[in-house]
Amino acid sequence: METQKLIDIRSLSHEQIKEAFVSKGEKAFRAKQVYEWLWNKSASDFDQMSNLSFETRNWLKENYVINQVKVVDKQISSDKTIKSGFKLHDNHLVEGVLIPADDRMTACVSSQVGCSLTCKFCATGKMDRIRNLNPDEIYDQVVHIKNWAMKHYNQPLTNIVFMGMGEPLLNYKNVLAAIQKITSPEGLGMSNERITVSTAGIAKMIEKLADDKVKFRLALSLHAANDAKRNQIMPINESNSLDSIIKALKYFSNNTRNRITFEYIAFRNFNDSMQDARELLAICKVIPAKVNIIEYNPIGDGLFEKADKNQTDKFADFLMKNGVQTTIRRSRGKDIDAACGQLANKKHEDALI
Q1: pLDDT in tens, 281-295
Q2: Which residue from 197, 207, 257, 302 could staple onto 162, CB 3.0 to 4.6 Å apart?
Q3: Euclidean distance between the first and final Cα of the chain, in Å?
Q4: Is 340 among the residues known to form the active site?
């Protein structure tokens, strides 16, 4: 049978796999065994399923495929950050990052091949959006990065951030399905509270998160505290104004009681003035949130520069003195283009054509 006609077995539910076994005349519990191999044990090949008979494994190979994500490139930064190119079953590539720290091991994963939002400061935004990632492709990134944490640093993975390539809320169904598998006892069993989904700000989808009463954390890539500046750097703001986003975040906060984080890249002489700080404080008084001020990581076009350190410290100090929990995030993995905003498959652009 031709490979393209095989069914992606991880696109099936446990019940659908059970029905397939029963219709074949097999015992229903075989489905549970297969499901455990696929998700809890992250099997990449049917031959790994050692508690199944040779005949059953052959039947699976004749009818199904495991579209396992493969690591095609791995770079380790001088600060111990690890970035990898992940090859998908159709030869497209995405990137993921392990960010080690003293108190945590964080996986930064992608949700789309490319991105459609064209944010001016982001390397991924200069690419076309080719397609959404499937739940299993997101899941596999986490598994690989989890394995790196143990192999290189002998530490378990503690956190996951959807801050890689793509806009997670434009791949809503698949992102939530992946998180369900990541947090399920049948999968990786991680805590929702250790997962953060970052969005550029799509108001109606933030409201949908609230309606679905998600348990994970939400982060808004804010980067400017007024519409005029935000429109310049994030075209999505033209159809999702700050007023509409703030309204959606209020709704989300009231319905989920989940913490919200504002991500704020500090650009020199653009959004780093004390007036900008006062405008950000005004938003924080409406939406209680913590603020992560992020160093800008140049992407080679010269449009922006990193804000002066003293000015960034002054900006952060103003917020903290006014009761806003604020952290300055120093960039990690800059020497391997693994820092915030730098993921763009530079070494594998031919694979994305």
Answers
A1: 999 999 989 999 999
A2: 197
A3: 28
A4: yes
